[in-house]
Amino acid sequence: xxASKGRRRADRYxxxxxxxxxxxxxxxxxxxxxxxxPFDFSRFGLGIQTDESFEIGEEVQLTLELENEDLDVSIxxxxxxxxxxxKIHSRFDYGVEFIFASKLSRxxxxxDLIRIERALQYFxxxxxxxxx
Length: 132
Prior knowledge:
The protein has two helices and six strands. It is α+β, with helices and mostly antiparallel strands. It has one domain (15-131): predicted glycosyltransferase like domains (Thrombin, subunit H, Beta Barrel), CATH 2.40.10.
């Protein structure tokens, strides 16, 4: 048994994908989902980086998907308000706070938001521990 442990040359690392898209209205009839780079996620909101331009106070719609070997969480639509905007070279960083139509709709989505938050925290802490 002990000999088989030593056969592996490198540890296997857990993987995680976290994707986000924002709904953009191009014209009266043309709307599309644009991939954005998500960062700094919590159950209350997230940061996104994109080439798209939004204004502070603007309402946006996002779709979120997190997947790893143990978990698959998909949120088809969550609304948010742009609370922060910063231009970084040709791209923008935005802080988006999630908003909900009612306490019930918040409650219905809360479990998935918490699951995403915990999975991201666990992944970051495991990466930090591996690098230490």
